[in-house]
Design a protein that fits this description.
mainly alpha, 0% strand, binds iron/sulfur cluster
């Protein structure tokens, strides 16, 4: 068993408290609006890798005005995509991988494959984006496990054993269990990401404002 029974037990109740907290404290990023389509969400998840959400938010409107669909990205010149992504950094690489994915989706008439094996074969899709495709497109409760989410989980439970988040089987399995407990797995993902971005921050976490301090190992050890 990768995740012990007691760890599983400790995941109970976290989801409800985080989802309630998110209703009041969640950050209103544009890709979270009701008007955001799956196209907007997946493009943003690709752009959010190694980039602050606030930075992606700042280019959101202009980018999607110029590129309102996968087809527009597929048919654009790479230079035009690069220009739009310049404020994010790594724009050449991002433009190339976004366009490679857009070209595959153009052939598939905008449809993502259903199986994880096929999703993993798509360009620009690593573990994090693969999970986001399963979550947003197919409604499967998978974690958007990045550095923020891993910090929250590790502080609540204990540090992971492996340096690479993507390869730590305990952290991966535990994150899946937590997300599967959500009434709304998308909002639960966002709530953990927001907690990691605003309360359970890397230096000096604001534990007194944290909705899951009861039960958190780090908080308990502060006494
Ligand atoms: S109580 Fe503190 S350390 Fe624990 S999850 Fe909340 S903010 Fe992070």
């Amino acid at each position: 068993m990768i995740v012990s029974r007691s760890d599983k037990q400790r995941t109970k109740g976290i989801a409800r408290r985080l989802e309630t907290w998110f209703e009041l404290e969640g950050r209103p990023f544009p890709w979270r609006r009701k008007s955001a389509t799956n196209y907007h969400k997946i493009v943003c998840e690709i752009l959010l890798q190694r980039t602050r959400a606030e930075t992606v938010s700042s280019v959101y409107q202009d980018f999607f005005r110029i590129f309102p669909s996968w087809n527009k990205i597929a048919n654009a010149s790479t230079e035009k995509i690069e220009k739009s992504l310049k404020p994010l950094g790594l724009w050449k690489r991002r433009a190339r991988s976004l366009q490679a994915l857009a070209k595959v989706l153009q052939k598939n008439r905008g449809r993502f494959p259903a199986s994880r094996e096929e999703i993993d074969r798509l360009p620009a899709v690593g573990q994090y984006v693969g999970n986001s495709v399963e979550l947003f497109i197919h409604g499967r409760p998978l974690p958007l496990l990045d550095i923020n989410m891993s910090r929250v989980i590790e502080r609540y439970f204990r540090p992971r054993k492996l340096a690479d988040i993507r390869r730590d089987p305990w952290l991966q399995a535990l994150a899946k269990i937590i997300i599967a407990r959500g009434v709304d797995p998308v909002k639960l993902n966002w709530s953990i990401l927001d907690l990691g971005g605003t309360v359970c921050i890397s230096r000096n976490p604001r534990c007194n404002a944290c909705p899951i301090r009861k039960g958190c190992s780090t908080f308990k050890n502060l006494d």
